[in-house]
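Filed under: proteins

Residues; backbone shape codes:
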Amino acid sequence: MGITTMNTLKATSIYIFSAAAVFAQEASTSAPAAEQAAPSPAIKYEKDDYRNYFGAGWQADSGEVISFAKRMGFSHVMAMGGMPKNRNSDGMYFYIETPEYGTYRRYVDPSKKYTPEQIREWETTCALKDASKPFPENLATGWFSTPTVFSVQLDFQQQKVIDRTIDKIIENVKRYQKQNPKFKFAGFSWDVPQPYGDFWDAEQATRKGRQITLSYWTGKDSGSKHPDVTHDYATYSEGYFEFFRQLRERVAKELNPNVKFIVEPYNVYNDWMRYMDSDLMKSKGADVKKYMPDFVLEENGSTGFVDDERAFKNGLLDKSRTGSSTPNVWDEPQSRKIAAGAAAVNGAWSTWFGRIGGTGNCPRYMYIRDVPARLKIAKLLPVWENLNGTPLSERKYENGVYSSPSAGMSESAIWAKHPETGEVYFTFITMDGSIPIPQGFEIDKISALSGVFEKLEGMAPNETNKWGKKKPPLMEIKDGKIIPNNPSVINMPYCVEFKKAEEK
């Protein structure tokens, strides 16, 4: 399905962005002029491309997430409880995050008393560090939720466990989609997946726990085998990759032939692609593609997702299938470098995955409405550039300033064209910022936006108050640009619609 032309869209709103040079101005008055290059072929992405993904979903409100995502033109979201019953989910797609976690009782509390059946379930389906020890000392410890309560990892060295897990995942997907058949299943995503398992030696915060592998306890990439189970795979990593491959094959046959897999390693190369270069993967020959996800996002707040060429040498990944999902970056210079200088100019993508802050220098935002406008637009900009089909040759990043026919970003302003409506979303970062008006066009309307980018009713910020005491407008039009006229507009979100200028 292609991008739908909206019936309510004014013809001029589409037309003004059709010419390559219309918006080839910088977002700041201080931006240097970029050399004109021959346009490269436009990149064609459908609206429902699997990479058009808004992945916030751990702490945010599900209604807010689905409405914001739909309003901003996203087609895919991370599944959350309550989404299927929200009318905004109609026609959208969902990914289920780390689906295996929904197939078993994941946490063990040593202070509680469990039935023999519950204990045997854990001992015969989960990874063990020492089968000779009594429960729960025999269980390999995963993430700790308290100093004593810990998670356990499924034993993917057992084909029986893989089969059972996939069966339950398929059941869970069907159950979720049954709530709203118009909310369609797209695939799965994994937060910082490790083929060797997510194991920890102690609680992280107070006891300074470290992430480890099974070799910490057993001396090798393999769990201690319970006497009543069979290890079909020699290593945990091999079993994990077989789960990955078999899940895709089963789901493609039973649920969605175009199922997609997303992974979010901390670092694209070190935490995923180097495993694809391992001897195990090389032994698969041409079948190695069966173990490769479709979309690889980087949690790390750097530009390594496009800059580390090691990730692309084996040909299993290209920059159109990478992106930044970092929740670690709040500061304007680095967020600009990631969104514009790395993602946008390389045709990569950006989103959030799970959480929207809480690490690095970024506050722990619980709601999208609380995220600064500049940061929201920065996340949107590479996605919209791709969906708008902006040629890579026309995406310029020079001296910290990004410019293209459909977007701009500098230390003083950021703006981008919505791929469906043609409206330009923008915010001023400093009083020196400016938003270009294309030649031959004029402003039809400027609207203030809420924290979730809904248009607010009321007087346009570029109009003079006609009631009571007259005050200058908050913005003014000068030299073919929209510029701030009052400090109150700084860091506030707006959108502008253009129309053809009347002949005089």
In short: Residues 89 and 183 are 6 Å apart (CA to CA). The radius of gyration is 25 Å.
